[in-house]
Design a protein that fits this description.
By secondary structure, this protein is of the alpha+beta class. Helix content is 40%, strand content 12%. The longest helix is centred in the middle third of the chain and has 22 residues. The radius of gyration is 20 Å and the shape is globular. The two termini are 38 Å apart.
């Protein structure tokens, strides 16, 4: 199929005046500056329909050849969350007990993390993001899988924050146990685990800062 034969439709796009663009950009930046990784969750239930809409938002992300190589598993069952916690803590004990080098542990020290992961049970929901290496049939190729799933995950985190939820990006390594516990096919690999909920009363987070714009932006 040539470009001229590929189906198209009109673009739904609203061109904003510069003042509105600046105002929206500033408001979004101010909101995302408040987003922090949370490890202390309240047991309060959350509206799962809102979480599903956030997952749907994540699925609007661009992807290589529009293959959309992602699967999102929403976990709320207490028994399943307990299994995930137990398996994750087993990996984390190996990590903190010797798998990670001294330099890595030193870099983590100011965050106060350790092998105990109670948030995997206390958070009312877990969203486990899987990357599809191919379409199930190896002849159905996927392209730029890691990049595509990374973009979708960024959409997800921003959407959950915008909806009023606290989150954490958790990556126990290796994460093969997630596919086993959740019954995912072999062509899917766990990419990220995102606890979702409300912060516990009195929740505290590490006192850290972000790099200044001048440190991350180069203009030519």
């Amino acid at each position: 199929m040539t470009d001229s034969e590929a189906p198209t439709r009109p673009l739904d796009f609203e061109r904003l005046d510069p003042r509105t663009s600046r105002r929206r950009a500033e408001a979004f930046l101010a909101d995302l500056r408040r987003r922090r990784s949370v490890r202390e969750f309240a047991p309060s239930p959350i509206p799962l329909d809102a979480v599903r809409r956030c997952i749907e938002t994540a699925a609007q992300a661009p992807s290589g050849a529009n293959k959309q190589p992602w699967t999102f598993v929403l976990v709320t069952d207490p028994a399943t969350k307990r299994r995930i916690r137990e398996a994750a803590e087993a990996e984390e004990r190996a990590f903190y007990g010797g798998r990670a080098g001294e330099r890595w542990l030193d870099d983590l020290a100011h965050l106060g993390t350790d092998a105990d992961k109670p948030f995997l049970e206390s958070a009312p929901a877990l969203v486990v993001v899987f990357a599809q290496l191919h379409g199930g049939d190896k002849s159905a190729r996927h392209y730029y899988v890691q990049e595509s799933v990374g973009i979708a995950t960024g959409f997800l985190i921003a959407a959950l924050h915008q909806a009023g939820f606290a989150t954490l990006t958790h990556t126990p390594s290796p994460m093969r146990f997630l596919g086993e516990i959740l019954g995912r096919p072999k062509h899917e690999r766990a990419y990220l685990l995102v606890p979702v909920g409300y912060p516990a009363e009195g929740c505290r987070v590490p006192d850290i800062t972000r790099k200044d714009l001048a440190e991350v932006l180069i203009e030519r």
